[in-house]
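Tutorial sheet, problem 5. The four components below are modelled jointly, 226 residues in total.
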Amino acid sequence: MVSISSDVIRGYNDTIILYLLLDGPSYGYEISKKIKDLSDEKYIIKQTTLYSAFTRMEKNGYIESYSVDAESGKRRTYYRVTESGLDYYREKCNEWNLTKEVIERFIRKEDGE
Amino acid sequence: MVSISSDVIRGYNDTIILYLLLDGPSYGYEISKKIKDLSDEKYIIKQTTLYSAFTRMEKNGYIESYSVDAESGKRRTYYRVTESGLDYYREKCNEWNLTKEVIERFIRKEDGE
DNA sequence: ATATTTACTACGACAGACGTACTACGATAG
DNA sequence: CTATCGTAGTACGTCTGTCGTAGTAAATAT
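Model answer (structure tokens):
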């Protein structure tokens, strides 16, 4: 069974999170479920990975947080994308397209043999 | 200018190296030049990254080395792919195809705006 | 004679991801 | 009434791959 290793997706966790925040503010648990759903369970982000990404991106100014003492359930920390975060996301998309092209030069297509 | 960051290619250095060794044995310096050429200089692997990949892959049994006291030029260490290395390469290719699909779900195509 | 290219090695630092574990609350099941 | 499950997040230490810097050494170009 082929699954996605962390080293591969490594450079794209931030991008994935930002993508999901483009639709509007969200919080950790919701993001993690969306990643699971959108990837058909092929990629399940680890909690520690996710929350450390939040911290890192907030420090870098890509996202902003605000706390909500929820009516029901536990208190949540919501995150929203900043202008700078949007720029970063766009850069990453361009980088992805380039990287994809380059890596594909080193991948054998044929499954034959 | 968009260039490829190491975090992105991170999980694929081994794959790239194995790909180049599929054509026949080669050595560090040659591999590094081939990567530069084949990627149109978009990706230039660092020496330390390359040689540590060799060490790691040999330890894992994916490649084998042999020294050649060259007639001309300096002494080289050649590497060749093993059966296990070939299997690993094929796995990585499959993983790449999966990863590519998944990441693309989080990438906005439109450059508009 | 000197600089550059070839070919490789050594060592330490760093960042991102991971494993494990813990807190805490609400809802549901037994 | 207690236990477990789902939700929501924090803390801490470890590991791996990559990188920066530097050094060695021979061959080739200027």
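Marking note: The CA atoms of residues 29 and 112 of chain B lie 42 Å apart. Full credit if you identified this.
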